[in-house]
Each structure stands twice: as structure tokens, then as C-alpha cells.
């Protein structure tokens, strides 16, 4: 996968990475809203400052957190309504988490973009595919 922003971090004359940037590389972070994920953003920004970054969230079944599912169940008219509500609210939850990750990454100097992907499992393989690398066996 070619990143259209990769040349932004290269010096025009020598085509060498600018030492003050992510070296022309795209950074993909998986952010789940937990404190260790926020710490990983901070540490990564120290190692690869000022580059383009994608904050990814792989949205997998059951498509909403356990706390959200518990909150939605009381008062539901039936299973179909419940499943539709989980889909809708789970997507909103994924978007919200990714937006928080983008805010954190932007605050650390990255040009961050949200990347929410729905998957039926295999989060690691999905992230590898997003990064353009080979999927693990």
C-alpha cells in the first residue's frame, strides 16, 4: 500500500527522511480507549514524531462492549430490536473511541486520521492488511 503523504517527510534534495519526522513512513496505531493504548501513542510519538498516523479500531463481534450491551438490554422489545441497537450503538462506540485516539495522536504532533474497520475476527490479520504487510498465518 502506497502512502500519498510519504514524500511529505522527505527532504527534496537528498530524498532522505527528515530526522524530525516519522521518516516518510505511515504509522498505524490500534486504539481501544485503555490507558496502555494512550501510553503507546505517547511512546510512539517520541520515536516517530510529526508524521502521518492512522488510529485504527477493528470493530469485531459482538460489535459493542459488554457494558454497552448490558445497558441496552433492559426494556428491549425483542432480540431483533436488541441486535439492531447493538449494531448502531456499537458503531457509534467504535467511532467515539477512534476519535479519542485521533485527539491523543494529534496532541502528540501527528497528522492523525481515524480508521474504523468492521471485521468478523482476526484483529491482528486485519491490522496487517491495513498496514500493507502480509497477514500472519
UniProtKB/TrEMBL annotation:
<protein>
    <recommendedName>
        <fullName>Universal stress protein family protein</fullName>
    </recommendedName>
</protein>
<feature type="region of interest" description="Disordered">
    <location>
        <begin position="1"/>
        <end position="22"/>
    </location>
</feature>
Amino acid at each position: 500500500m502506497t502512502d500519498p503523504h510519504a514524500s511529505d517527510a522527505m527532504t527534496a534534495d537528498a530524498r532522505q527522511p527528515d530526522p524530525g519526522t516519522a521518516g516518510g513512513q505511515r504509522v498505524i496505531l490500534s486504539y481501544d480507549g485503555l490507558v496502555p493504548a494512550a501510553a503507546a501513542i505517547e511512546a510512539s510519538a517520541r520515536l516517530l514524531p510529526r508524521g502521518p498516523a492512522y488510529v485504527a479500531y477493528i470493530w469485531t463481534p459482538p460489535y459493542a462492549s459488554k457494558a454497552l450491551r448490558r445497558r441496552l438490554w433492559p426494556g428491549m422489545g425483542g432480540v431483533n430490536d436488541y441486535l439492531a441497537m447493538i449494531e448502531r450503538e456499537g458503531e457509534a462506540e467504535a467511532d467515539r473511541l477512534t476519535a479519542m485516539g485521533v485527539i491523543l495522536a494529534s496532541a502528540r504532533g501527528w497528522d492523525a486520521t481515524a480508521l474504523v474497520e468492521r471485521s468478523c475476527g482476526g484483529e491482528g490479520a486485519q491490522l496487517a492488511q491495513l498496514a500493507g504487510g502480509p497477514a500472519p498465518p
